[in-house]
Design a protein that fits this description.
This protein is about 40% helix and about 20% strand. It is built from 15 helices and 16 strands. Strands 1, 5, 6, 7, 8, 9, 10, 11 and 12 form a 9-stranded mixed beta sheet that branches. Strands 14-13-15-16 form a 4-stranded mixed beta sheet, sandwiched between helices. Strand 15 and strand 16 form a beta hairpin. The two termini are about 45 Å apart. The protein binds histidyl-adenosine monophosphate. Histidyl-adenosine monophosphate binds next to strand 7, strand 11, strand 12 and helix 13. The site of histidyl-adenosine monophosphate has 24 residues, from strand 7, strand 11, strand 12 and helix 13.
Length: about 400
């Protein structure tokens, strides 16, 4: 029986690896420009690192098992709990704010669908130790700059921004009881994907009256002005978070040329993960063809819960799968890089040791070099060189070497 990959797992042939490398190069380059330092953690973690804090959606998708030592373990489905543990363990000695990035492969037992696999690579960028909104702006600017680095524009990608605290203040201003917030957030999260009537039914079941149901269904269209007005007209509680959000928009516009064109206030951005506490955001393609490209936000209580130190923190995860699909759809993936600088061909009477010595001296100068690993006719060697896409063919004869560029 022929073997295939498990569902949702990928083989990376050189063409696909070149695409992945292209995306990862952009991630690294922008992370460097924003002065983030790289870290990594183990791919296998204790199960309870996730069951306590990640939220039901991720916990339901864990690849977990009991290891040979009887430990409950899980393949990492996300990086944030690992980061929280690592930073927590060295909280006193780390320079703050800590700006760290990582590009782990993550594993989630997801229902297979377009843009969602059971493994993916995810850029994680996080800032720990800064509660001010400039840090939130810095991260979103960074996510936008990655898109720009990959030649995407604000015509293709939008950053939808919300704030959990503003959302709570708005729901309270609509007279909705705090007990119903969780149910309302669950519905708001699905407004774009779920028929309106079903959302309305769920909201009514959560105890909302007809007027409240209508206002919640309209949340994706609520502007920051409407929301601010509603909060001030009610108790005014939470109004300071609206001002912070306005500052955030101004900062991003300053950090990225034309930054405002990428941003959209959208209170229906909820984010599935349980630990977010403040500004949250997601990047989508404007055409609505694909799933989220990137998601993140502020999680000021997670370090305390996992690392035992109370430090404000925020970050995002950007996966390779949707981003690569989008780049492919927009014709923005480069053709596979040519890798062979020199292909050495040789006459029949040239000893292989001489070919090897030529190869070694060119490689010592930093060139990539290939040659026939077994005796072959010159025409076969030439053909192999051309198939390899070699930039230069050097032909070795008993008298001289001739260099022909192709
Ligand atoms: P997340 O929204 O679960 O957040 O994932 C972030 C991004 O990873 C998504 O927008 C998507 O591009 C990609 N992604 C997630 N699951 C899959 C999948 N099954 N297949 C392909 N791509 C996927 C987090 O994981 C947070 N821990 C991010 C974060 C970092 N928040 C703060 N710091």
């Amino acid at each position: 029986m022929a073997h295939t990959t498990l569902p949702g797992f990928r083989d990376f042939y050189p063409e696909q690896l070149a695409e992945r490398a292209h995306v990862m190069r952009a991630w690294r380059e922008v992370a460097r420009r924003y002065a983030f330092m790289e870290y990594d953690g183990p791919p296998l973690e204790p199960l309870d690192l996730y069951t306590a804090k990640s939220g039901d959606e991720i916990v339901g998708q864990l690849y977990n098992f009991v290891d040979k030592g009887g430990r409950e373990v899980a393949l990492r489905p996300e990086m944030t709990p690992t980061l929280a543990r690592m930073v927590g363990a060295r909280a006193n000695s780390l320079r703050k704010p800590t700006r760290w990035f990582s590009t782990p492969q993550l594993f989630r037992y997801e229902r297979q669908q377009k843009g969602r696999l059971r493994e993916h690579y995810q850029l994680n960028m996080d800032i720990v130790g800064e509660s001010g909104v400039a840090a939130d702006a810095e991260l979103v600017a960074c996510a936008i700059d990655i898109c720009r680095e990959l030649n995407l524009t604000s015509n293709e990608v939008v950053v939808r921004v919300s704030d959990r605290r503003v959302m709570h203040a708005y729901l309270a201003a609509l007279g909705i009881a705090p007990d119903s917030f969780e149910a309302v957030l669950g519905v708001a999260d699905k407004l774009a994907r779920q028929p309106r009537a079903i959302s309305a039914e769920k909201l009514a079941a959560a105890g909302l009256n007809v007027d409240q149901v209508e206002r919640v269904l309209d949340i994706p269209h609520a502007t920051i002005d409407t929301v601010e007005f509603a909060i001030s007209a009610a108790s005014g509680v939470g109004i300071e978070h609206v001002q912070e959000l306005r500052n955030f928009f101004d900062y991003v516009a300053q950090l990225v040329p034309g930054g405002e064109a990428w941003l959209q206030f959208d209170l229906s951005i909820v984010r599935g993960l349980a630990y977010y506490t403040g500004i949250v955001f997601e990047l989508f393609d404007r055409s609505g063809e694909f799933r989220a490209i990137c998601g993140g936000g502020r999680y000021d209580n997670l370090l305390d819960a996992i690392g035992g130190t109370s430090l404000p923190a925020l970050g995002f995860g950007m996966g390779d799968v949707v981003l690569t699909e989008l780049l492919r759809a927009r014709n923005l993936l480069p053709s596979m890089a040519q890798t062979v600088d020199y292909w050495l061909t040789a006459d029949d009477d040239i000893p292989v040791l001489r070919v090897m010595s030529e190869a070694a001296s060119l490689r010592a100068k930093g060139f990539s070099v290939e040659y026939a690993l077994r005796r072959q006719s010159v025409s076969k060697q030439r053909k192999a060189a051309i198939t390899a896409g070699a930039r230069n063919i050097v032909h070795l004869t008993n008298s001289t070497a001739t260099d022909s560029s192709v």
